[in-house]
Design goal:
two-stranded antiparallel sheet, 40 helices, 3% strand, mainly alpha
Length: 972
């Protein structure tokens, strides 16, 4: 089973190249995995019909009791045959529906096949968490399929609406799964059904939350608005997702859990009421539409309500009727959607007001549609009739609630007959006053998939007894009545048949009274749910904008004061209420007098920041506080932290200096004495409060420190550097999350600088200005002389003859520093070697991927400061994003490789002998640290290019603008 599911995803990865090579014929190849799955499921029919089950189990996350557990029983057998069989036929249909020139066909093919794999995983999952994962995968792939034509606003809006509704329902369902698993003591579905937890308020809450997810997936009112809008998707998507697969997921989940929880409040009232309402609203709406696809869409909504009533009734006979109706619905609704696609393909329209005479022009297509339509209207001897008879009879034999549901079902069946006649008449009949519609011939291969499904409706009607064993096995999970219902084409003339006749008659009358029905429907029409949804989203967006505008005033100082005031108020309130300092030992002022001296100097630098007006002076003083903190780490015996702090402060100060080139020398905000007198105490009180809280927290520690255990664990693995081991092994989850945040922050910062591109490689060099010598060459911010920047004529400036850097010739002579060039060229490679050393020695000496990446970044910064942006481009010919992406990919890959042992970030260590190296070992922690190294290096390069090279280019353009008048006047 696992191999069949994975085959879908594996082949989906190659769908795009297959489509490029084979065109639309690639869909035939892509149909092989679902076809093979259907054949395999057919071979297991006898086993599942006899009550057996095929299972696959793998302990995936044993610590959380989550397993990769698949189970093929009677209900899963039925759903697998539908998902795989109909999926294979739809993929074959796509080979004729699309042509080789269709846009983004490869992506569509891969998404459709991947959806089929996710649907198979959903119906086979025997673990609640695994089921949820496949559940959300179907949501994501359906979003991509509905939004296939993304350049159309309607497709984008419909895809987003479907994603919003089903995802919110899925998240709600996940909470219900967690509660249910906690109450049952397991997430294994088969174990929960075998021994369900006793009724309780928590269980009822879990059931309601789970049903919200199921109802939203199956488009049950009030979540039904997304399904009709999803008809913006290509017709094969509607035939598969919205007839046989995705919308059945909610009904499947209800049917799966019904044997254990049908008697739990409020299961039956909720499902019977909402299912009945949906059945009536969907059927009534279908009578007033003119688009054939929308008629079927609202008909699908109505039928899903009917299926919800049957699956939620929770009795033996209704279970047989529900499973029979699930099969019948897929076999008649999917071919009707496919026929609609054929009509649209052959005529160019789906508007029944413009269609006329297609029954004579396309007789074979008409025959297929009539067979499927009559099955939908429950006309004998088709499968739809036997399923509808089973539904009527099972509800007749039920309690009062079932009989009320029966009355709604009869009315819904009349509506079904009416919109079926409307569909068949509108699509194929010759209408007075409307000319016959032109249509090209339909190839047999195009018609074959819907014909096969319609033929199944015709064959399984008389042969419905073949299904009794499989469907009866599922129904056997409910208490079996004294006289259980058995599927058959003919049960004699009884009340169920009379109700069917009444539904047919009512449907014919509704169809004949189309005009009065339309006027009544228009008069009784409620406000469009789609419009309400749109206005709700618009109101939510406006509210968010107003809140953002109120809070985000654009003043950094206001943000800081607000945040610190809130934190300070909360801390003071807790301190005054609890008085937690009682019993806390008094803090030691210092362990060594040197600490006191460093601390005083650091505090003095911080206090001096409050009164400075020049930006550069503020940066230097802030940097001194960072270096002072690093010295405190050194005095405390924490070389790893000190090394990291030194590197961070160095890079930060350089970045600040680069940015300050384009900023005013002085701070532009002016503060009155009153405002400054207010803010300084807030800042000082905030710092004092944080220090007080840290002292109290440290003094209130009651449990043993985790440090000893971490030291012991590090020594157990033969390592010495505890800090590095914590970062890449013991607490690697935190490091991976922080790495992702760092990458996202770098992308955000550079995106603000590069509005269009994040690389200099595609930008054109600055050309010589008018009036310059024709061979003036490249002009950079570092090459523009002070005279040129001032707009004055340039004189004779000599340049050193020796070039120490690759791009040194791009610098103006007076801006070159031979000493800096020599130093940069001499220290560049040693610093890179040092960074590699810091990376590789981190297990036993101070170092690590983070500090090593910063060190390597300093080497490239030195090249940039000495030679400008062209020197940086020569030193790093690659895009900085390559390092960032590669590092994040490597770290994530190492983390996910641990899943092979059941735990993310599970570590391995290799010990061996290398020819030159000697005894050596390699662990996944080192590979993880290499990913951090590459990521940090990429972030530093990205920021330097954005805040350094990009600002250089702005200076060049500004200088060029000032020299144009001089250049234009020269030739004159």
């Amino acid at each position: 089973m696992s191999a069949l599911i994975l085959c879908h995803f594996a082949l989906a990865l190659f769908a795009a190249p297959l489509v490029r090579w084979c065109g639309a014929r690639a869909f035939i190849v892509l149909a092989l995995p679902p076809a093979a799955t259907a054949v395999w499921a057919a071979t297991r029919w006898s086993t599942t019909a006899a009550g057996g089950a095929d299972t696959t189990e793998w302990a995936w996350l044993p610590a959380y009791h989550v397993d990769w557990a698949l189970r093929l029983d009677a209900l899963a057998e039925l759903m697998v045959l539908l998902a795989a069989g109909v999926g294979a036929l739809v993929l074959v249909y796509c080979a004729s529906y699309f042509d080789d020139r269709s846009r983004q066909l490869g992506r569509f093919a891969g998404n459709l096949l991947a959806f089929a794999g996710a649907m198979l995983g959903l119906v086979l999952a025997d673990d609640l968490i695994l089921l949820y994962i496949f559940w959300e995968l179907t949501t994501v792939f359906s979003y991509l399929l509905i939004g296939q034509t993304s350049d159309h606003k309607r497709n984008r809006r419909s895809a987003l609406q479907a994603l919003t509704v089903t995802t919110l329902g899925g998240l709600t369902m996940l909470v219900g799964f967690l509660i249910l698993g906690h109450e049952a003591g397991t997430y294994r579905i088969s174990a929960i059904l075998a021994d369900p937890p006793s009724a309780s308020a928590a269980l009822s809450t879990a059931i309601v939350l789970i049903l919200v997810g199921a109802l939203s997936k199956s488009a049950i009112w009030p979540f039904s608005l997304w399904l009709p809008n999803a008809m913006a998707a290509p017709t094969p998507v509607s035939a598969y997702l919205h007839a046989a697969a995705m919308v059945k997921a909610g009904v499947y989940l209800i049917a799966r859990l019904a044997p254990a929880f049908a008697e739990v409040t409020p299961w039956r009232p909720l499902l019977l009421v909402l299912g009945s309402v949906t059945m009536l609203l969907g059927g009534w709406r279908a009578l007033r539409l003119n688009d054939l696809k929308l008629v079927l869409a609202y008909g699908t909504v109505s039928q899903l309500g009917f299926l919800t009533v049957l699956a939620g009734a929770g009795r033996h006979d209704t279970a047989i009727a529900a499973t029979a109706m699930i099969l019948a619905h897929a076999l008649f609704k999917a071919p009707l959607f496919l026929v609609t696609g054929i009509i649209d393909h052959a005529t160019g329209t789906r508007d029944l007001r413009r269609l006329s005479g297609l029954g004579r022009r396309l007789p074979a297509v008409c025959a297929v549609a009539v067979v499927a339509g009559l099955s939908m209207a429950a006309v004998p001897p088709l499968l739809g009739f036997t399923a509808k008879e089973a539904a009527f009879q099972s509800l007749l034999d039920g309690d009062t609630a079932d009989r009320w549901a029966l009355a709604m079902t009869v009315v819904g069946s009349a509506l079904t007959t009416a919109y079926t006649l409307r569909y068949l008449w509108g699509a194929f009949a010759r209408r007075p006053g409307v000319p016959d519609t032109d249509a090209h011939a339909v190839p047999p291969a195009f018609l074959a998939p819907p014909a096969v499904l319609a033929l199944a409706c015709l064959v399984l009607g008389p042969g419905v007894s073949w299904l009794q064993g499989l469907l009866g096995t599922y129904a056997g999970q409910f208490p079996v009545p004294a006289h259980p219902y058995h599927l058959a084409l003919w049960h004699g003339a009884g009340l169920a048949l009379g109700l069917s006749c009444a539904a047919w008659a009512g449907g014919v009358l509704l169809f004949l009274a189309a005009s009065p029905v339309g006027r009544v429907g228009q008069a009784l029409a409620w406000r469009s749910a789609d419009r309400i949804f749109g206005r709700f989203l618009l109101g939510l967006e406006r509210t968010a904008l107003q809140c953002t505008g109120f809070v985000q005033r654009g003043s950094l100082s206001v943000y800081l004061v607000t945040a610190m005031s809130v934190v300070l108020a909360g801390q003071i309130a807790v301190l005054l209420a609890d008085e937690p300092w009682a019993g806390v030992p008094a803090p030691r002022l210092w362990d060594h007098p040197a600490q006191a001296g460093v601390a005083l100097l650091t505090c003095a630098a911080a206090l001096l920041c409050l009164g400075v007006r020049r930006r550069m002076k503020a940066v230097v003083l802030a940097g001194l506080t960072g270096y002072g903190t690093a010295l405190l780490f050194v005095a405390q015996g924490a070389p790893d932290l000190a090394l990291t702090q030194f590197c961070v402060e160095t890079v930060s100060m350089i970045v600040f200096v680069l940015v300050l080139r384009r900023m005013p020398v002085h701070f532009e905000e002016t503060y009155s004495r009153a405002r400054r007198a207010l803010r300084m105490p807030v800042a000082l009180a905030g710092g004092a409060a944080v220090a007080l809280v840290v002292w109290i927290m440290a003094g209130h520690r009651r449990a043993d420190s985790a440090g000893a255990a971490m030291v012991e664990e590090t020594a157990h693995h033969g390592l010495k550097d505890v800090v590095a081991t914590i970062l890449v092994d013991l607490r690697a989850w935190d490091t991976m999350g922080e790495s992702a945040v760092l990458a996202a922050a770098a992308i955000g910062v550079t995106s603000l600088i590069y509005l269009h591109r994040r690389t200099d490689s595609a930008e054109q060099p600055v050309l010589p200005l008018p009036g310059d010598h024709p061979h003036a060459g490249l002009r950079t911010a570092w090459r523009a002389t002070s005279y040129e920047s001032a707009g004055l004529p340039s004189g004779d400036e000599g340049a050193p003859e020796r070039t120490w850097l690759a791009a040194g010739s791009t610098l103006a002579p007076e801006r070159r520093s031979v000493v800096l060039e020599v130093v940069a060229s001499l220290i560049f490679h040693p610093i890179l070697v040092l960074s590699v050393y810091l990376l590789m020695c981190a297990e036993n000496l101070p170092g690590g991927g983070f500090v090593a990446g910063l060190t390597a970044g300093v080497a490239f910064i030195a090249r940039y400061l000495a030679g400008g942006r062209h020197e940086l481009a020569d030193a790093v010919p690659f895009k900085a994003g390559v390092f960032t992406g590669l590092g994040l990919f490597l770290s994530t890959g190492v983390a996910l490789s641990g899943l092979a042992e059941g735990t993310v970030l599970h570590g391995w260590t290799w010990h061996g002998h290398l020819p030159v190296w000697g005894e050596a070992h390699l662990s996944t922690a080192v590979l993880f640290d290499c990913g951090v190294y590459l990521l940090v290096l990429g972030v530093v390069l990205d920021i330097v290019r954005a805040l350094g090279a990009r600002i250089d280019r702005q200076i060049e353009r500004a200088a060029a603008g000032r020299t144009v008048p001089r250049g234009e006047a020269g030739p004159a």
